[in-house]
Amino acid sequence: MGLETGTRTIVVRESVTGANDRIAERIRSLSRDRRILVLNLISSPGAGKTALIEKTVRHLKTSVLVIEGDPYTALDTERVSAAGATGIQINTRGGCHLDARMIEQALEGHDLSGTRLVIIENVGNLLCPAAWDLGQDSTVVIAGLTEGADKPLKYPDAFLRADVLVINKTDLKPYLPESCSLLRPNALGVNPDLTVFETSCLSESGLDEWYRWVRDSMDRKGKDSVHA
Ligand SMILES: Nc1nc2c(ncn2[C@@H]2O[C@H](COP(=O)(O)OP(=O)(O)OP(=O)(O)O)[C@@H](O)[C@H]2O)c(=O)[nH]1
Ligand SMILES: [Mg+2]
Questions:
Q1: Is the CB of 107 under 6 A from ligand 1?
Q2: Whose CA is nearest to atom 11 of ligand 1?
Q3: Inter-residue long-range contacts of 68-74, CB under 8 Å, 24+ positions, other chains counted
Q4: Which of 10, 120, 159, 169 gives 152 a disulfide partner, CB atoms 3.0 to 4.6 angstroms apart?
Q5: Per-residue pLDDT tens over the stretch 33-80
Q6: Which residue has its alpha carbon closest to ligand 1 atom 13?
Q7: Would you say 85 and 120 are in contact if contact means Cβ atoms under 8 Å apart?
């Protein structure tokens, strides 16, 4: 690709994410060989990513590796470890997303035998994480009902690139304006292919359907890999 600047031509040899995408493919190949389901969770700060992971880990009672991305602190790793997962913390020191190189390094330092599920909790925001492939099988976007129904319209890439939408904090619905019900149709307007779950990590409403989806996805990954 060449960009004319008037006096000279700048040749762009590779997109910014090109090198990232090659590493993401290596991660995909590793997870296929090992029959491990990899989920990438993205959301704005505080939507309930860690709460959903804690619940999922406690419920599944299987060996789960959680890779936590945060600018600073290991607070979320402490939470998921207390729930029974193996947690690996990545501190981006101000960086707004995880990239595939970080995930590959985390996986290289870990014995994956027995692991059936890797959950990546991306850095909390709806912009940058959507643009970086981490080699995941599925991207899960979590939207708290409290965040406003307009988020899929303002941050469409996060919803477009996701396979699953978890609408969390449904226990707070009685205290929110009627318009919060528009979150689901707004998201489906952006991406009609989204599989949607409505959950509360507080009351546990809707979590059974989510757990079933995770289990079915793990089973499918196991079978697909056998025949791959
Ligand atoms: N009422 C209610 N509160 C929730 C629910 N899920 C999570 N919370 C609360 O929301 C806050 C943020 O939850 P976290 O799980 O830390 O959110 P997060 O997306 O991991 O946040 P970051 O990692 O900082 O981006 C915590 O105080 C949780 O207890 C829910 O379903 N209902
Ligand atoms: Mg968190």
A1: no
A2: 46
A3: 68/121, 69/97, 69/98, 69/102, 69/120, 69/121, 69/122, 69/123, 70/123, 70/124, 71/95, 71/123
A4: 159
A5: 999 999 999 999 999 999 999 999 999 999 999 999 999 999 999 999
A6: 48
A7: no
